[in-house]
Amino acid sequence: MRITLTGATGFLGLRLLTEFLDRGDEITVLSRMDSQRTVARLRRGLRALGRPEGDLDDELRRVAACQIDLAAEWLGVGADAFRVLADQADQVWHYAAQTALSGAAAKHSINVEGTRRILELAAQGRRRPEVHHISTVHVAGRREAGVALESDLDPSGGFVNHYEESKCRAELMVRAWSQALCRPAAIYRAGGLVSDREVHPGLPLHPLATLTMLVEEVLGPRPADSPPPPLRIPATPGGHLNLLQVEHAARAMAQLSLTARPPAEAVTYHIVHPLDTPAERVARMLEAAAGVRVVFAGPHDPAAWQPAGQPEIAGFLPYLSQRRRYDTRNVRSAGVAIDPPEITTEYLLRGVRWADVPARVK
Fold first, then answer.
1. Does the residue 23 lie in any domain?
2. Distance CA 7, CA 25 (A)
3. Reduced to 3 states, what is the DSSP secondary structure of residue 63?
C-alpha cells in the first residue's frame, strides 16, 4: 500500500511510520523540512525507538520525503507536483498539527487550513485515496463529565482552548469532504498519548514530558535541602484523564485503517485507554519529577497557582478536573481491541526521565 503521511517526525507520527514499515507499505512523508533533514530525523527517531541499525537503510528506501508548506496553496509545491503527490497515494494520513494550548492564529493556519489542503490533495488523487485524520478526544470541549460519543461533534458548547476548537473545525471539514465526494474517511480521536521511554534527544516529547519541563523552568533551581514548594493546582478532586500508551494508539489506528468503511461517511474512532488515569497520579508524577508538593485547591480557589507567562501550563491544568468518559462502539464493532496495561505513576515518571541526564529526576 502507498501511504502519504504528514507529521511523521512527531510523537505519534513516528510510531505510525513503524507500523507502516512493519506491514511493508511505501510511505511518502510530507514535511516542512527539506527531504534530507526529514530522512535524517526519521533515521534518528527510528534508531532511538530500537529499530535494528542494519535494517534502517532497507526500511528507509521505502520512505520518500517531500518538503511542503501545509497552509499554502498546492502545499507550496506547485500544481504539477501537487497532482503527482495526489496520484501516488492509496491512503492519506494527516497527523501534522499545531498542538500548543495557547495562541490562535497558528492553530487556525495549520490545523484548519492545513487540513483543507490535505483534503484537496486526497480529492485529486486518481486512486481515490481514503483519508485518515488524527484528531483528539478534546473536541468534546468544555463538557467536564458524562459520556462523549464517537458520533458527537458539537462546537456550540465552547472549548477550553483554541487547540480544541481548531481540531473540531478540522473534523467538521473531514466530515463535509466525505459526504460531498462520496468518499470514506476515518477520524481517530486520541486520548492523551504518553510513553515510558526516557526523554531522548532523538525522539519528540510527549505532552506530560513537556509539562514537567515547563514546571521545572518556572520553579527554577533550588537548594538540594530546601523543602518542596507547594503548588496549589486549580483542579477538582476526583478528576481523571484518558491517557494511552502511544504504541497502542498507533497499532490500533493501523489496524482500523484496514477495515472497510461505507462511502460518503467519515467514521470516528475513540482511541482511548479502557481505564482512565486519576489526576492524582499525574500530581504524584509531578511531585517526584519536579520536587514539588501538589495540592488540589479547587478550580475557583483565588490562591490557586497560575504561573505568569506560562500559557501552556495554564492551558493544561483544566484537564485535571475532567471526569468525561469516551464511547468506543465503532472501535469494538471493527473488531479492534485496545487493551493496554494500566498507566501507573511509575510509568508516567519513567517517561519524563532524561536519558542523557540520569540524575535529573531523583
1. yes
2. 17
3. strand
Do the Cβ atoms of 258 and 184 come closer than 8 Å? no
Question: How many domains, the chain?
Answer: 2
CATH code (residue 117):
3.40.50.720
CB burial readout 77-92, b (16+ within 10 A) else e: beeeebbebbebbebb
* 100, 218: one domain: no
Task: Say which amino acid occupies 349.
Answer: L
Check: CB of residue 244 under 8 Å from CB of residue 272.
yes
Interacting residues of 156 by C-beta distance below 8 A, sequence separation 6+: none
pLDDT at 105: 63
| pLDDT reported for residue 361 | 42
Residues of the chain with pLDDT under 70: 102-106, 355-362
Pair 222, 284 in one domain: yes
Note the pTM of the prediction, 2 decimals. Answer: 0.94
Query: DSSP for 213-231?
Result: HHHHHHH----TTSPPPEE
Locus of grid cell 520512505: 63
Same domain assignment for residues 110 and 177: yes
pLDDT mean across residues, the chain = 92
Q: How many CB atoms lie within 10 A of CB 116?
A: 16
Residue 256 is assigned to a structural domain of this protein: yes
Same domain, 181 and 67: yes
Is 104 found in the same domain as 163? Answer: yes
What is the predicted pLDDT for the residue at 355? 67
First to last CA, the chain: 46
The residue segments making up the domain with residue 282 are 202-241+276-323+343-350
C-alpha cell at position 29:
512523508
